[in-house]
Design brief:
Elements (H helix, E strand, L loop, with lengths): L1 E3 L11 E2 L1 H13 L8 E8 L5 E8 L7 E5 L2 E5 L1 H7 L3 E6 L4 E6 L5 E2 L5 E3 L1
Parallel strand pairs: 1-5, 2-7, 3-6
Antiparallel strand pairs: 3-4, 4-10, 5-6, 7-8, 9-10
Organism: Halovivax cerinus
Protein name: HesB/IscA family protein
Pfam families: Fe-S_biosyn
């Protein structure tokens, strides 16, 4: 298992999390009754959507052995090696507006997205 501090490591391999996303995720983790010192948000890529790939997120009790772990604003983010090649350099944000509210991944590796923005291609 490897760990990267919020400000360290290779910038292209970094996954950043905005303060608003971290606060929102930590609140949800606590609502689930999970320990925020051990548990975290798993960010992953899966096959699906009209553009070929889509993001997935879930809360995990603990990281897997081969995960990279990032810590931002008290939130632990777990990323598996297969997903890392698609999302390295990304920023996880939480957006709130008139149309929608939720987590959003700003991914510099995306070359195209579907019309609804739910899936992407690198």
């Amino acid at each position: 298992m490897s760990t990267e501090p919020a400000t360290g490591g290779d910038a292209t391999a970094q996954i950043d999390v905005t303060e608003s996303a971290a606060e929102q995720a930590l609140s949800l983790i606590e609502d689930e009754g999970l320990d925020t010192d051990i548990s975290g948000l798993r960010l992953f890529v899966q096959q699906g959507g009209c553009a070929g790939l889509s993001y997935g997120m879930r809360f995990d009790d603990e990281p897997d052995e081969d995960d990279t772990i990032y810590e931002h604003h008290g939130l632990r983010v777990f990323v598996d090696p297969a997903s890392m090649k698609y999302i390295e350099g990304s920023v996880l944000d939480f957006e709130s507006g008139l149309q929608a509210e939720g987590f959003h991944v700003e991914n510099p590796n995306v070359v195209s997205e579907c019309g609804c923005g739910e899936s992407f291609r690198t």
